[in-house]
Amino acid sequence: MSTEQKVSWSDSFSEAQTAIQSLSTILPSIPPTLSSSDTPSLALLTDQELATQVSDHLRQPDSGAGDNQLCRWLYDTFNTSKVDLQLVILRFLPIIAGIYLSRIPLRKPLAGFEAVLLAIYAHETTARNGQAITINLPDLSHPSIYHESKPQPHKSASTDLNLQNR
User: Fold this and answer.
1) Is 61 in a helix, a strand, or coil?
2) What angle do the packed helices 111-127 and 69-78 form, to 10 degrees?
3) Are 118 and 75 within 8 A, CB to CB?
4) 109-166 per-position pLDDT tens digit
5) What is the Rg, in whole angstroms, of the alpha carbon atoms belonging to the chain?
6) Long-range contacts of range 118-123, CB-CB < 8 Å, 24 or more positions apart?
7) Are 85 and 78 in contact (CB under 8 A)?
8) Name one Pfam family in it (predicted).
9) Which of 33, 26, 69, 60 is nearest to 48 (CA)?
10) What is d(CA 155, CA 24) in angstroms, rounded to the nearest whole number?
């Protein structure tokens, strides 16, 4: 292992430990295996008990506000620019987006959720050098090469005549 790799691993390990310590001030209890893990980022990513606690905390009625500590932790942890810690935050993206979208009609401030979502968006935009992802939607008026089209029933002149006379 080169010196640069050792420094990078040590730096990542240290940041993951710091993230765990910060999270322990927010959640009621942190699984003891997280603090003692040799791979704390992986432990954060895969620990089901922790995922349940974070998900439950995100579902609380006051979550998502600008001063919400868990949203702040998610935002700060994602912005460490350590890929392994960013994956931890991406694990919670579906629940954050789902709760955010379900609370929009309530017209409550959701600056905490918005900050996390915008951080992820900004990261993706930067990774693509500002280039948009374009998609091409198929023209549904043309038959698909993947499906057989149903034959159209033949209309007879007498059928057309009967329908028009009614």
Assistant:
1) coil
2) 10
3) no
4) 899 999 999 999 999 888 888 887 787 887 777 777 776 766 666 655 555 555 555 5
5) 26
6) 119/75, 119/78, 119/79, 120/78, 120/89, 120/90, 120/93, 123/78, 123/86
7) yes
8) Hyccin
9) 33
10) 73
A 10 A CB-CB count for 54 gives 23
CB 31 within 8 A of CB 49: yes
How far, in Å, CA of 49 to CA of 57, rounded?
12
Residue 32 token pair: 């003891």
Q: Which two tokens stand for residue 138?
A: 């198929």
pLDDT band at 7 (very low <50, low <70, confident <90, very high): very low
pLDDT tens-digit profile of 44-97? 899 999 999 999 999 999 899 989 999 999 999 999 988 999 999 999 999 999
Beta-carbon contacts of 12 under 8 Å, excluding residues fewer than 6 positions away, are: 41, 82, 84, 85
Longest CA pairwise span in the chain (Å)? 89
Torsion (CA) 108, 112, 114, 117 in degrees, nearest 10: -150
